[in-house]
Amino acid sequence: MPDLWQDAMDHAVSLARTAGSHVRDAVQNDMKVTLKSSSVDLVTKTDQKVEKLIIESVKEKFPTHSFIGEESVAAGEPCELSDSPTWIVDPVDGTTNFVHGYPFVAVSIGFAVNKKLEFGVVYSCIEDKLYTARRGKGAFCNGQPLQVSDQTEINQSIIATEFGSNRNADVVDNIFSSMRNILCLPVHGIRGVGSAAINMCLVASGCVEAYYEMGIHCWDIAAGVVIVQEAGGVLMDVDGGPLDLMSRRVIAANNQTIAERISEQIDVLTLPRDDIP
Ligand code: LIP
């Protein structure tokens, strides 16, 4: 059977590398920071320039395809996942890291058809690590196959999470209370590199057992979902139900046992959905 989307994936890989080299060049030089949803939700000229570069190039090569892009949505474009082939793009995942020169910044490109994710490309551009996965064909980092950890004991695990960009005291208390529950299971440690996409790639690489977060957006996780699945991992909503790309909540884990143990500890927040303006 012909592999319909390989051409699109090859283009995504080449775009992620080009975009990543722009991001790498701009780290610590692009200090024109603008605020989005809060004083800690940052955007820079590089986020906007790189998203434009990616979208214009895809439009030229695949004129019928659709887009969901972090900066386009911020500028008022709809965040709608239809049946049409759709590129889901975060030009700079880890913008706060980017602004501070903290070396975990990724270009993240997911691709869905009939609302099903077909491939994911995450380029961690400062580390120069290119993570790729195509549905049914495995996950790779710089061409080397990835496999999640085989750990089934939560108390032998490292869990990744983030504080996100909401500084409302009640939300922060909620984040700490879930984190406290998980830490006291106990687990070996809690980590977080400041990029949802890279955290998911670390799950796929087997060095952390799971990553969870509430408050992320579909463009932060779309590519990572395919990479985790193809490395043998599982995805879940933090409430224990199936992952909903638009619900702004995710658990990505090496297996069902670890995912369920985490979901039991989380005080679930209901957030405004990505697909409801
Ligand atoms: C960020 C994520 C980070 C999360 C932030 C934000 P951005 O993405 O990757 O892990 O905690 O809330 O969504 O805004 O840098 O693309």
Describe the protein's topology.
Layout (H helix, E strand, L loop, with lengths): L5 H21 L6 E3 L6 E3 H17 L4 E4 H5 L11 E8 L1 H6 L5 E8 L2 E9 L4 E6 L4 E3 L2 E2 L12 E3 L8 H15 L5 E3 L4 H10 L4 E5 L3 H13 L3 E3 L12 E5 L2 H10 L12
Parallel strand pairs: 3-4, 10-11, 10-12
Antiparallel strand pairs: 1-2, 4-5, 5-6, 6-7, 7-8, 8-9, 12-14, 13-14
Helix pairs in contact: 1-2, 6-7
The structure holds L-MYO-inositol-1-phosphate.
Count of individual domains: 2
Specify the structural class. alpha+beta
The rounded Rg comes to 17 Å
- Number of H/I helices: 8
Order of helices and strands: HEEHEHEHEEEEEEHEHEHEEH
CATH superfamily annotation of the largest domain: Fructose-1,6-Bisphosphatase, subunit A, domain 1
- Global geometry: globular
Instruction: Identify the CATH class of the largest domain.
Output: Alpha Beta
- The tally of beta strands, per DSSP, is 14
The average pLDDT value, as a whole number, equals: 95
Helix content: 25-40%
Strands side by side in the biggest sheet: 3-4-5-6-7-8-9
- Would you tell me which CATH topology of the largest domain applies? Fructose-1,6-Bisphosphatase, Chain A, domain 1
- Strand content is 15-25%
- N- to C-terminal separation? 39 Å
